[in-house]
Amino acid sequence: xxxxxxxxxxxxxxxxxxxxxxxxxxxxxxxxxxxxxxxxxxxxxxxxxxxxxxxxxxxxxxxxxxxxxxxxxxxxxxxxxxxxxxxxxxx
Length: 91
Prior knowledge:
There is one protein chain. The protein has helices at 12-21, 50-57, 81-90, and strands spanning 22-25, 29-34, 62-63, 73-78. It has a four-stranded antiparallel sheet. The protein has 91 residues and is an alpha+beta fold. It has three helices and four strands.
């Protein structure tokens, strides 16, 4: 199955920071140590978000929940619809 990447205005710095912030991953999900000052999702006055970064990796990746922009902490990102549904039910 070929996944198409959507090219967004995501800097190499943000991609590297994202990759270094992954604390666990398997075939179904990853856990990211989200840093403060990056939004989880796009919005007004948001240049780049975690959602933008993951959409650059794969359109299959889905946010399971959100954290406020200035909040750091663990963020779960599903790599497929099945795990998005599983984590959604748990939350």
